[in-house]
Amino acid sequence: MTIHNLGDQNSVLNQFISEIRDVQIQKDPMRFRRNIERIGEVLGYEFSKELLYSSKNIETPLGNKSMYLSQDQVVICSILRAGLPLHQGLLNYFDAAENAFISAYRKHENDENDFEVVVDYFAAPSLEGKVLVLTDPMLATGRTLENVLKGLKDHGTPKQIHIVSVIGSQQGIDFVQSVFPAQTHLWIAAVDPELNARGYIIPGIGDAGDLAYGEK
Ligand code: URA
């Protein structure tokens, strides 16, 4: 897997990440959602450089211009509900993208640390020959992404897989790297060192779904 940690570079992306981390700014859910969307836009622009481009003649009112455009069909696949603002950010740039949605939750067995990821809603188009973009705003353990990948197996073989994530734990990234095909790209805005006992990224941001849409 190729890991593109864009938060390692100096850019306006760090402004958006610091705002979603900040407990004071987090009090405004609209700003939180918009910042996640903006992060999706930046990461989407970056991975667009991996698509296949061919030239097309564009007629302007005053002449012609050959432009490079991508013919790749992009499918954006998000996990409800925390993935929705990131999904919207990507859709802002990929106008013709198809969409897939999955709902997954953690089913705890005996204690907080012992859980399986249950996928109970799945709606996806064919992925055959397409560019699959999986969004997971908080790449904590990586087990949700593993289950999503398994669930998508019957939908055809994509030509490229891109994972788009806002913040990941090093442990989650290592796990995803071990279960995804080697050609997968991970586009991520920040990598944090730890996971706590409940599987939350430390220092992270807290619960991304609650911050975007309110506590359950
Ligand atoms: N999901 C979240 O919303 N936050 C985390 O830190 C981990 C998983």
TrEMBL record:
InterPro entries: PRTase-like, PRTase_dom, PyrR_bifunctional. It comes from the Bacteria. Residues 10-214 form the Phosphoribosyltransferase domain. SUPFAM superfamilies: PRTase-like. The keyword rRNA-binding does not apply. Keywords: Allosteric enzyme, Glycosyltransferase, GTP-binding, Nucleotide-binding, Transferase. GO terms for molecular function: GTP binding; uracil phosphoribosyltransferase activity. Pathway: Pyrimidine metabolism; UMP biosynthesis via salvage pathway; UMP from uracil: step 1/1. Its EC number is 2.4.2.9. The keyword Glycosyltransferase applies. Belongs to the UPRTase family. This is Uracil phosphoribosyltransferase.
